[in-house]
TrEMBL record:
<feature type="compositionally biased region" description="Polar residues">
    <location>
        <begin position="196"/>
        <end position="208"/>
    </location>
</feature>
<dbReference type="GO" id="GO:0016020">
    <property type="term" value="C:membrane"/>
</dbReference>
<dbReference type="InterPro" id="IPR008253">
    <property type="entry name" value="Marvel"/>
</dbReference>
<keyword id="KW-0732">Signal</keyword>
<feature type="transmembrane region" description="Helical">
    <location>
        <begin position="99"/>
        <end position="122"/>
    </location>
</feature>
<feature type="signal peptide">
    <location>
        <begin position="1"/>
        <end position="19"/>
    </location>
</feature>
<feature type="transmembrane region" description="Helical">
    <location>
        <begin position="67"/>
        <end position="87"/>
    </location>
</feature>
<keyword id="KW-0472">Membrane</keyword>
<keyword id="KW-1133">Transmembrane helix</keyword>
<feature type="transmembrane region" description="Helical">
    <location>
        <begin position="158"/>
        <end position="182"/>
    </location>
</feature>
<protein>
    <submittedName>
        <fullName>MARVEL domain-containing protein 3</fullName>
    </submittedName>
</protein>
<feature type="region of interest" description="Disordered">
    <location>
        <begin position="196"/>
        <end position="232"/>
    </location>
</feature>
<keyword id="KW-0812">Transmembrane</keyword>
<feature type="domain" description="MARVEL">
    <location>
        <begin position="1"/>
        <end position="183"/>
    </location>
</feature>
Length: 232
């Protein structure tokens, strides 16, 4: 459940980071940015307005692969985790060992996958911020006092990396717990199998046979025409 929660937070941070950094233009087909070109507080005018609009659009489109890659990845991880969460909501003795083994390998792959995804996301963001488009855009915004619209790694991108690493740690812990659960489930199922297939003690078996033999002999001595009420 914790991994699902942090996965949702990662998804939100990816979208927010794109929205905040979209500037005065729209977010390359993802709705509106953090500012509006038609707003009364728009500080850009004339050719500068057109230039910042073009730069914002180019920058948003350059960052778009990070959103289109990060969002589906987070959704897929969350859905698979939710599947294992629902499938495991039953007594341990009735959970198939194969399901627990699949969950263990998924937790390991998800842990490694999130670490790799965070590294690729930050590498992609740094590459985009190192382009001439970002540098020109930074200078235009700095002229109007918007110094926070720069080419450094912003808070939204840092939040994506932070919660991505937290999710990776949660999957790592989940893999350890899953391994311990597999061991416990095997022990429980082995004990249940031995209990079901354990032979009866020899003395108990002979006594049982003597009781069955005496019961059958007693039944042979009973008059079949005797009323049932007298038998009771």
């Amino acid at each position: 459940m914790a991994a699902i929660g942090t996965t949702i937070i990662v998804l939100i941070c990816v979208a927010v980071a794109q929205a905040v950094m979209s500037g005065f233009s729209s977010m390359g087909g993802l709705a509106t940015g953090s500012f509006s070109l038609n707003s009364d507080i728009n500080p850009f005018q004339g050719t500068e307005l057109q230039e910042v609009r073009d730069l914002d659009m180019q920058y948003s489109q350059m960052r778009a692969p990070g959103v289109y890659g990060g969002a589906p990845f987070s959704i897929v991880m969350g859905v698979i985790t939710l599947f294992f969460l629902i499938s495991g909501a039953k007594p341990l003795c009735s959970i198939p060992i194969k399901l627990l083994v699949f969950e263990f390998f998924f937790d390991v792959l998800a842990c490694v996958g999130y670490i790799v995804a965070v590294g690729l996301y930050l590498h992609f963001v740094i590459q985009v911020n190192a382009t001439d488009v970002c540098k020109k855009r930074e200078r235009l915004y700095a002229r109007q006092g918007y110094t926070w619209m720069n080419c450094d790694v912003q808070g939204g991108d840092a939040a994506v990396a932070l919660f991505g690493l937290i999710t990776s740690i949660l999957y790592f812990v989940g893999s350890i717990l899953c391994a311990l659960t597999i061991r416990l489930a095997k022990a429980i199922q082995r004990d249940m199998y031995l209990e079901q297939n354990q032979p009866e003690p020899e003395g108990r078996s002979q006594n049982g046979k003597q009781r069955d033999h005496g019961h059958r002999r007693h039944q042979r001595n009973i008059d079949p025409d005797l009323p049932v009420s007298t038998l009771v």
